[in-house]
Design brief:
The protein is mainly beta. 10% of the residues lie in helices and 51% in strands. The chain has four helices and 18 strands. α3 links the parallel β6 and β7.
Length: 262
C-alpha cells in the first residue's frame, strides 16, 4: 500500500478528541467479508463528493491520487444494543459500502470518512441507514459466486463484481501484524459522515472489533458495471498492493448518529 493511505499524509488530521467515540454503540453484527482499498486520480474521486465536501490535501509522494475503499460481505448475528444490553435480532444479510477516507467540509478541517453509497440485502437496514445515517443505501441482491462478490439491482441488473484472491494464511485478529493492517484500522476509527436526502449531514462511528476475528491479506479486482452514484462511470480497478483484507468474525458496532456541520 502506498504511504499516502496513512492519515499523516493528509492535511487536517483530527485531534485525539475528534477521533474519540463519545456516543454509545446502538447496534452490532458479525462481519465476514472483504475490505479493499483502491487509489484513484483525485479529480475522479472529487466527482463523488457533494459541493460542501472536499478531499484533504495529499502531501505524500503521490499527491495526485486519493484512496477509495470497498467493503463487502455478510453481516450475521445482527443485534441492537439498548442500555448496554445486547438484544439479538436473529438477522443476517449481505451488505456493501463505498467509502471515501480523508474528507473535509470546505470550511472545516477535521478528517472524516464519507459514505456516498451502500447496498443492503435487508430492507430494514436500508430504511434505517437512510433515515438516520444518511448512508445513501439501496436494497440490492448480493451473493458470492465462488471468489467473486456480485451485486445486482432487485430487477436483476448487474451493478458490481469484486474478485478476491487470498495471498496469505489466516491470522488471529488480536495479534495480526500484516502490513497495513493497523493503517486500515486507523482509517475506520475516523468519524463516519453521511448526508441525508434533505442535504443535512450526520456523523457516527464504527467500532471494528478484531479480537476474536481472523484476518488474511488478499488481492482484489473490482468491476463497476453500472454507475453506483452520480459521477461514477463504469470502470475496472485493481486494489493497491497490500491493501485488501479478508476478515471473518469481525464484530462491527455502530453508534447513534449526531448532527454535524462546520
Amino acid at each position: 500500500m502506498q504511504p499516502f493511505l496513512d492519515e499523516h499524509c493528509f492535511v487536517g488530521s483530527p485531534s485525539h478528541a475528534e477521533r474519540g467515540i463519545t456516543a454509545s454503540f446502538v447496534g452490532q453484527a458479525t462481519f465476514n467479508g472483504c475490505i479493499a482499498f483502491t487509489n484513484w486520480p483525485r479529480p475522479h474521486v472529487e466527482r463523488l463528493l457533494p459541493p460542501e465536501l472536499r478531499l484533504a490535501a495529499n502531501v505524500s509522494s503521490a499527491p495526485s491520487l486519493h484512496p477509495l475503499a470497498f467493503i463487502f460481505g455478510e453481516n450475521t448475528d445482527g443485534a441492537t444494543i439498548f442500555g448496554g444490553v445486547t438484544l439479538p435480532l436473529g438477522v443476517r444479510y449481505f451488505e456493501f459500502a463505498l467509502a471515501i477516507p480523508f474528507v473535509q467540509h470546505v470550511s472545516h478541517s477535521p478528517l472524516q470518512v464519507y459514505i456516498p453509497r451502500m447496498y443492503s440485502g435487508y430492507f430494514p437496514a436500508t430504511w434505517n441507514g437512510n433515515l438516520h445515517y444518511g448512508f445513501g443505501k439501496e436494497t440490492a441482491t448480493m451473493y458470492w459466486d465462488g471468489p467473486v462478490f456480485v451485486i445486482m439491482t432487485e430487477a436483476g441488473a448487474l451493478l458490481l463484481r469484486a474478485a478476491v484472491d487470498a495471498t496469505a494464511r489466516w491470522f488471529p485478529g488480536r495479534s495480526c501484524t500484516l502490513p497495513n493492517f493497523a493503517a486500515m484500522q486507523a482509517v475506520f476509527s475516523l468519524p463516519v459522515l453521511g448526508r441525508k436526502s434533505n442535504g443535512t449531514y450526520v456523523r457516527s462511528h464504527f467500532g471494528w472489533g478484531f479480537d476474536d476475528a481472523q484476518v488474511r491479506s488478499a488481492d482484489a479486482c473490482i468491476s463497476i458495471d453500472a454507475p453506483l452514484v452520480a459521477g461514477l462511470p463504469r470502470r475496472r480497478c485493481e486494489a493497491v498492493a497490500g491493501g485488501t483484507f479478508e476478515v471473518r468474525g469481525m464484530v462491527w458496532r455502530l453508534t447513534w448518529p449526531t448532527p454535524w456541520g462546520p
